[in-house]
Specification:
- This protein has helices at about 10-20, 55-75, 95-110, 120-135, 145-155, 170-180, 195-210, 230-240, 250-265, 280-285, 310-320, 330-345, 350-360, 410; strands spanning about 25, 45-50, 85-90, 115, 135-140, 160-165, 185-190, 215-225, 245, 270-275, 295-300, 365, 370-375, 380, 385-390, 400-405.
- It is of the alpha/beta class and about 425 residues long.
- It is globular.
- It starts with 8 loop residues before the first helix and ends in an 8-residue tail after the last helix.
Length: about 425
């Protein structure tokens, strides 16, 4: 599972420069400054699926906020190829069969030009496999499994699938690159009992061992989806006397785990806590001032990074529209719509084959920073920050301090994805 080490920083920068001819800016100008002729004619349709019900339903709401803001701004700027952008959301219920039904409905019945969204890796894999039959582009905005870009796109040649969000490399590999510099030798994990949790832990262990041969992995506890009582998991790993805990629990389960770990006195007994999803807005808001300070956390986008005018403007517009700060799934959905708009304009068409060619090697300046869609596996490459939780009186939740970024070319695995 090691990356191709021949892919150097120089190679990465060279590839980005080569893609510069297709450089575009997503939502760079304020909507009032980008007014254009009112779009008309047949709408360009995006069918968007995500989880809209149950304990993870908030993720779908955040996606809707980002997509809605993008659509409003795109239509105010003249639409896509002069045509209005229209979108529709459907709940995939975190079920692969429902995701496939949604994709077929969007394309065969509603007439979608594109499909977007998806939170679950399992749903992403199932939907991706039917996209050649439907022959429409799927732009994944969350589901993180590396099997999408490494196996389905690169090895099996499914060209209709792209992903704009950072994959599981951030969760497992970048985490280890933070952990390697910490004064911790003995690690344990409490993580989800499904592919995302297993893969992240394996990547973390394999990467950390390369940098820190002295690292020990002393205990594992796997929490089924929907876990509310983390007591048994906490007791199990603490019984092994770890110095650090790595976790990929996310959403409400991450909130519950931290609250219960505080009750068990965990944070006074370990040296470090790492969670690559711990800076997601729902976790920050869910814990508020109860979030212990000094924990290492990250996210697929964090609203104060990068410190650019484009991102600051996006955050301001988002907050004005929704009275909330953007979640990472808000930003990825927002940027996905702008990426599709730009690709259609470069292609001069919404035809699938032409838009695929326009997306390949496209470099896009987005609120999250510079994104580059690799031609080989259709994965967007960009950097996200890590930091320690800290208090800031300007916000009702923790923000990131002692911030660090791992260069994307160091933690993204690269084609040909050989072991």
């Amino acid at each position: 599972m090691a990356e191709n080490r021949n892919f150097s920083r120089r190679t990465f920068i060279g590839a980005m420069a080569a893609a510069g001819g297709a450089l575009a800016v997503a939502g760079m100008t304020r909507p009032e400054a980008a007014r254009a002729a009112k779009p008309s004619g047949k709408p360009v349709k995006i069918g968007h699926m995500c989880v809209l019900s149950g304990v993870l339903g908030g993720y779908g709401q955040f996606m809707q906020m980002g997509a809605t803001l993008a659509a409003e701004e795109i239509n105010a700027a003249g639409g896509i190829l002069g045509r209005p952008l229209e979108f529709q959301f459907r709940d995939d219920q975190v079920k692969p069969d429902v995701g496939v039904k949604n994709a077929r409905y969007f394309v065969d019945e509603w007439g979608a030009d594109f499909v977007a969204g998806i939170d679950s890796s399992g749903v992403a894999l199932a939907v991706a496999k039917v996209m050649p039959q439907l022959n429409k582009i799927l732009m994944i905005t969350h589901g993180a499994t590396e099997k999408v870009n490494e196996e389905l796109v690169y090895k099996e040649g499914i060209k209709q699938v792209f992903r704009i969000s950072v994959p599981v490399y951030q969760d497992g590999i970048a985490s280890a690159m933070i952990a390697k510099d910490l004064p911790v030798k003995r690690w344990a994990t409490i993580s989800p009992k499904y592919e995302y949790g297993y893969t992240s832990w394996e990547m973390f262990k394999n990467t950390l061992k390369r940098f820190r041969p002295d690292a020990e992995f002393v205990e594992e506890s796997w929490a089924p989806f929907g876990t509310t009582d983390f007591g048994p998991h906490i007791s199990k790993v603490m019984g092994a006397n770890p110095e650090g805990i790595f976790t990929t629990e996310w959403a409400g389960e991450a909130v519950a785990l931290v609250k219960q770990a505080k009750l068990f006195g965990v944070f006074g007994k370990i040296k470090e806590w790492l969670n690559p999803m711990g800076a997601a807005m729902d976790v920050l808001e869910g814990l508020g001032k109860d979030y212990p300070e000094g924990l290492w956390v990250s996210s697929r986008y964090w609203f104060l990074y990068p410190p650019t005018g484009i991102n600051q403007s996006f955050v301001e517009r988002f907050h004005k529209r929704w009275s909330k700060y953007p979640h990472y799934s808000s930003e990825t959905s927002y940027s996905a719509y702008w990426a599709l708009k730009r690709a259609c304009e470069l292609a001069g068409s919404t035809e699938t084959d032409k838009v695929i060619k326009a997306l390949e090697d496209l470099t896009l300046i987005t609120p999250a920073g510079r994104r580059w869609f690799r031609k080989e596996d259709h994965q967007a490459v960009y950097e996200v920050p890590w930091g320690r939780t800290k208090e800031d009186p300007k916000y009702p939740f923790r923000i990131l301090g002692d911030m660090r970024t791992v260069p994307a070319e160091m933690y993204y695995r690269h084609p040909p994805f050989t072991a």
